[in-house]
Amino acid sequence: MDKSQVKAYGPGSFADYVDFNEFDGGDGQMGVAGDGNTKLEKMDAVPQLAKSKMMSAKNAWGTSTGYADMLRAKNPKMDTARAQQLENWANQQEVRMKNQQLKDMADKFDQQQTSAEENWRQLAKFGVERVTDVDYDEAFGAVAVGDKIEGTIEIKSALNKVQTHSMDLRNPYMGFADFRAAFVPGTSSDWTIEPHEGSLKQREDTNFVVKFRPTTPGLSEGYLVIETEDFKKTWKLVGST
Asked: If DSSP codes are grouped into helix, strand and coil, which group holds residue 191?
């Protein structure tokens, strides 16, 4: 309506007014007012209940992979809802398997992290755990007296009785260093040392315990050598009964 025909905020002319008796009450089920349809709107030829079941079967998963169609093609008598249920189940199993794979990957990663942390703690415990797995005879060669004698370890003990001498040692260089603690050939088996191999730390002492258990009376002499790839320390051993 043209604005010139508006009067007192309402229509100033009813020339184009059309009267009809098809008001549907505002429920929207009779289509457009004035289309001549005074009955409930027809959706389609499919019964509403059957259509609702079909939609529910499809919406149970949200997407279709075509598995339900394949099942119905193999067995035309199979119910549509049943075929969709089987497809939903197959999809759920696939998702479950993927989630399990992700969980296994996460667990494996956590185990690797835990193992690495445990190995590092072992290295820091007592200096006993080795950093590398090498053959000390190949890496250091035969046990031999070094150029410098650090000192003399003297222990006196009764026959078949153990006496000990304790000393601390650090790696004078940065980080960890694998070591070998051994006696030069000719030293009596009455002498032992713990630990005899492992890793020396730079900022923490590693405690070595030298033990002497004489099996025969008299004097027992020898040499103890503790060495890494970077240094060698030698002590003279003197044991007596």
From this structure: strand
